[in-house]
Amino acid sequence: MRAAFACLLGAAGLVGLSGCMNLDDFLFNPTRVETPYRFDEPSPELDGDLDPNGPHASRIPRWARTEGFVESALGDEIHWVYAHLPGAQDTILYSHGNAHHLARYWDRVELLWEGGYNVLIYDYPGYGRSSGSPTEPGVLASAEAVLDVLQTLPGVDSERIFGVGFSLGGAPTLHLAARGARGEGPALAGISTEAAFCSIEALVEDGAGLDLPVGYVSTLRFDNCARMAELDGLPVLLRHGDADDFVLPRHATLLEAAGAGAVELEWAVGADHSDIPLVLGDAYLEGLERLSARARP
Amino acid sequence: MAERARRVLLLAALALTATTGCASRHLARTVGAGNSEARVSIGGPLFSNLGAPIPLPNVALGGRYGVADGWDVDGNVSLLGAAVGVAYLDPGVVKQLFVQERGAALSASARANLFIGSSEGLAVRVYPEVGLHGELPLGPSAKVFGGGTAWISFTPPEGKSPVMVTPYLGASWRFGEHPRGGPELSLQLGWVSPWMDSSSVVAWEPKGHGAVTALLGLSVPFGGG
Questions:
Q1: pTM of the entire predicted model
Q2: Would you call A191 an interface residue with chain B, using a CB distance cutoff of 8 Å?
Q3: Which helix (H) or strand (E) holds B76?
Q4: Which residue of B has its CA nearest to A213?
């Protein structure tokens, strides 16, 4: 009997002393890079999702690329790479997914650049060559900083900047769009998300099957659904794989339902989490062309 | 999001879900008035985010006490939940429905699964659970046991059922010289809501069909015969 109570008291003591273990750090998946990316050779860091043959030398030539750093409002040095396409009317600010660094998404930048857009991609704090550590405010501040830079770069029409975000990148994309809609920052012409989630809370609900508070295990919120409600007529293109078993398709319908903008939801039939451009094929760029057309005055 | 993120959201969701298969439900035979039992359970729902399917590494400490013949109070606490700052407790009662001295036994249980943690202030969740538990002897020391539990979630997430049912089956081996037998080792396999689509950031197994749970338990009796 005493032993039983001792066990229970010990367990209760553990519970009382706990709370020091936070899972936020695990919610980001950065890889730091200390040296410049080797875009002009098939270096391992260019191993993206879209090329089944593995990494390849950049199809965007050296002359079209510009790199730099900008300090965010939180003091992080944010690394960005800009691919300039002479004659392009529209510019895309690309916010990448949770894994590694921007070079792993370079094949997606190539797809957009070859499709007729200027493209800027950047790394969140703690990712790639950016300094600092990833946090929710840090990710959002990095997007704000590079948007300011983008408007100063050659070939960029500040009235024709579109945000495109993949997975985690949906969060900074929606943040910039909502901020612009509130008049607190530069306005975007439109946005597109791929495999974005509604919120961290909704992701945790998926896994637990219960209405447990997200705050139990994380301080992160990334409430994209709340941002969707602030867009005030901004053209939005949501894309999601109907076979996505990571960020479930319901997140797309939740985002659509929350939207206050002109929302188009395009399902990539048969697509999982990371292969939407491959599955959509030509329709991938056609969707962006529709978004661009909707943004015209 | 890639592997590391998956590991984590999994851990996040997990510690939480340990719930459905957190502790042994080998409760068919009540302990008798004034007697008690302490136990430890290791395991939980199977997931494959780290590669091959493995049980969630939850450790639950628990015990029960006979408040009257045929009535036990029972409870467990999850150490994995504690490790991420969430207190998970499941106090309950067990009522003997049928018992043979050296034969079959059947009981029913009712409990409250409590989660207590902070989320912009103190956040408490309560999920009632009812269960039915039976056992049959296979010999002087071995038993098979089985039953089912049903969790009730008053405000389930969209697309999720308000009731999570977990049928389970297990076997146990008792050894030692205690009047009620010595320590008992048990292995319990369950299946949380097999018909529920469990696809999510947590790769529960079998994919898309609830989650199979595996628990190894050790219980130690205290008190008279």
A1: 0.82
A2: no
A3: strand B71-78
A4: B119
